[in-house]
Amino acid sequence: MSVVPASFEGMAIHMGMITIDCADPARLASFWSAVLDIPVTSEHSADAGWTTAGSRLDPPRLTFQRVPEPKTGKVRLHLDIQVDDLETAGAHAIAQGATLAEFQPQDDVRVYLDPVGHPFCLWATTA
Question: Are 103 and 111 in contact (CB under 8 A)?
Answer without folding.
Answer: yes
